[in-house]
Every structure is written in C-alpha cells, then in structure tokens.
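A reminder from the course coordinator: this example appears on the midterm review sheet, so study it carefully.

Given structure:
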C-alpha cells in the first residue's frame, strides 16, 4: 500500500497541468497513467495533418508559454514537443503503464482507496489518497454508433482516432460519418488527395475560420457580450462562406461561442473542406438508416456503395468505469454535472481537470482552481 496526499489519474495535458499547479503550491502528489507515455491521445490517436485550431496563446499549460518562435497555429508534433519540455521543466514523473481498476471512498479513513495494476508485469498497487484528481480526459474512448448491418460491412471500419492519412485509402470509396473538426478535416485529407469521399452530416454545425474564432476569443477578453461577439463573427463567416445550407450544411440557432459555452460543442474550423463540397468533390449525405453488405442506405432513401467507413462520431469519458462514489461530481456519462457552481469539485476531496469541454485554456483554469482549493484544504487539516 502506498499512502499519498494527492493521486492524479491521467498524464495527458490535464494531469500534467494539475501536477504543475500542485507543485507550485508545494503539494506532493503521485500521478499514474495507463499508457506508456504522456499525452498519448496526441501521440497515438491523431491524424498526421493535425494542427491546433486555436492560436498558441489559448493552447498553453499553466506557468509555461510556447517558445517565441513557435508559429501562431502549431502542429501536433510541435505540441508534443512542448508537452515533453513541460514534463522535463516541472520534473513530472508519471508512473506509466498503470491502469486504475477501481477507486472507492472510505468514510472511516476519509481517503480514496485506489487499486491500480501495472500493465507490464501485472503487479497490483493499492493507493490511499486524501485527494483524488480525475484527469483521464473527455476523449478516453471513441464512440461508434449502433447501425443495423454495420457488423456485416465487409470493408474497413475505423474510428477517427485510428485514422492517420489518405495513403491507406487510395483507390477506395470512403464514407466519413460525422461533421465535427475531425470528420471535416479527414474528408478534406482524403478528397484533396484524389480519394472518392462522401461525408455524412447529421446535425447543424457552425463553419468558421481559425482567424474568426481567434477574433471572437480576443473580443471576449474585452468583456463584450457573447451574443454580440457571435453576431460579429457570424456576419463575417457568412460573407466568407456564403449560404452553405444548399450544400447540406445548416447553422445552429445558437451562435458558435455561446454554443461552446453552453454545450461544449465546438465550431468547425474550415481547412478547405467547404470549397470541395461546393465543387462537388466531396458528396454530402444525410443520416444513415442501415447497411447491407457494401451498400449504405440513408434516411432520405439514397443508397451508395463504399469500401471503407471512418466514424468521426466523438468520444466519451470512461471515468465511471473505475470510479465509485463519484456522483457528487460526475453524471452518468462521466462528465461534470453542469449544475455545480464549481464543475471541477466534488465531495470528499474529489476533483477533476479537463472534463469541462473548454479545451486547453479550460484545462489551465481547472488545474489552477483545483490546486488552489487543495492547498486551502491542506492548510486547514491536521497531519496526514
């Protein structure tokens, strides 16, 4: 058994940010990670052409800016290097290949009892922690929806987290399901390199440019009303893209920044996909009704044959699979309850970082808040 003051579960950007902020307050911690590296999502489950969609000042972890010569919009390789430098600079030593199997609050010891398994040698370690920080992320596991006939589809079926580049799809007909940032950019990567590409758009979506979102975030720093900022960037977006509804892309009723704040849903940053849609290079299709062999049938009666399916249909939190007694903080989907005044704080020393659907900027805010709250609690408690 290992007794720790704070146990952080997850060594992605959220866990690393929490570790740094705790260190700044002089709070000791232990950090465990089920993968064999930090920021595994960025290293292993992102496509090759990925660039961050926000300007670098909105993509920093606490207490360390990006180097001055870093471009405004950074690639995933540049971000991974930044993470490695962050880990080295703040002397963070995660215990890798360590999977938390269960975690339960003990009201007698007023601690969290955690069972973790070393995935290399199978050794089990029991931790007793006064404070627990859930930092396993919003994107722990990819979601592929249940569709009649999908299991009998004879071609390739992957989640977008396993997509790397168009090279694996040359000469094939590919259906990309989902119109978020991943789906739109994967469709562009395929189509711009000569792959026959179709795209399922199932729901309204805002299409913006990086610079328009950057403008909006800068205006919000001046404390302008969100609806007014949305009006400005939507007007500019309509000038830039025109009416996209005739191509199957319909805007939500709520503005892009307000929608992000209220629901966590992000606007799509256009990388050239809309131009290919307008040109007919990418075919837009509606929701799928069923799949029969290679044939995909759609709710509007259309049918098309495909060789491969790429599901860019989002992710889910897996925190509830191992965390017991977390209902004070997390809902049934493993995400913070929105009615909480502090959506990073639960009962009994339970916290979360990076589950607020607010990107890297939100991670930084959460980590600072969590560390400050733990520091306050430690200062008021007796010896541990």
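Designed residues:
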């Amino acid at each position: 058994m290992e007794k720790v003051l704070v146990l952080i579960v997850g060594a992605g950007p959220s866990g690393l940010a929490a570790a740094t902020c705790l260190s700044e307050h002089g709070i000791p911690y232990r950090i465990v990670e089920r993968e064999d590296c930090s920021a595994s999502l960025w290293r292993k489950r992102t496509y090759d052409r990925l660039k961050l969609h926000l300007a670098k000042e909105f993509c920093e972890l606490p207490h360390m800016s990006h180097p001055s010569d870093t471009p405004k919009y950074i690639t995933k390789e540049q971000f991974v290097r930044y993470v490695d430098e962050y880990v080295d600079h703040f002397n963070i030593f995660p215990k890798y290949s360590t999977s938390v199997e269960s975690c339960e609050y003990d009201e007698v010891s007023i601690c969290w009892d955690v069972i973790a398994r070393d995935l290399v040698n199978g050794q089990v370690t029991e931790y007793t922690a006064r404070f627990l920080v859930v930092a396993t992320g919003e994107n722990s596991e990819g979601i592929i929806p249940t569709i009649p006939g999908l299991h009998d589809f004879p071609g390739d079926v992957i989640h977008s987290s396993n997509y790397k580049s168009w090279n694996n799809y040359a000469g094939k007909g590919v259906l990309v399901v989902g119109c978020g940032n991943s789906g739109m950019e994967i469709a562009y990567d395929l189509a711009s390199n000569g792959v026959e590409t179709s795209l399922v758009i199932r729901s309204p979506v805002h299409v913006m440019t990086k610079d328009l979102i950057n403008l909006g975030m800068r205006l919000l720093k001046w404390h302008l009303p969100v609806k007014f900022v949305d009006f400005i960037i939507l007007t500019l977006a309509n000038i830039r893209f025109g009416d996209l509804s005739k191509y199957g892309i319909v805007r939500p009723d709520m503005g892009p920044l307000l929608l992000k704040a209220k629901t966590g849903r992000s606007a799509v940053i256009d990388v050239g996909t809309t131009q290919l849609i307008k040109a007919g290079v990418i075919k837009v299709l509606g929701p799928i009704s069923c799949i029969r062999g290679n044939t995909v049938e759609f709710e509007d009666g259309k049918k098309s044959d495909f060789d491969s399916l790429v599901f860019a249909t989002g992710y889910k939190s897996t925190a509830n699979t191992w965390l017991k007694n977390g209902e004070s903080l997390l809902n049934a989907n493993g995400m913070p309850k929105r009615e909480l005044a502090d959506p990073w704080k639960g009962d009994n020393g339970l916290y979360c970082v990076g589950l607020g659907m607010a990107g890297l900027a939100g991670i930084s805010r959460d980590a600072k808040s969590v560390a400050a709250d733990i520091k306050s609690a430690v200062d008021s408690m007796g010896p541990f």
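Residues 359-380 form the longest helix (22 residues). The first strand starts at residue 2 and ends at 9.
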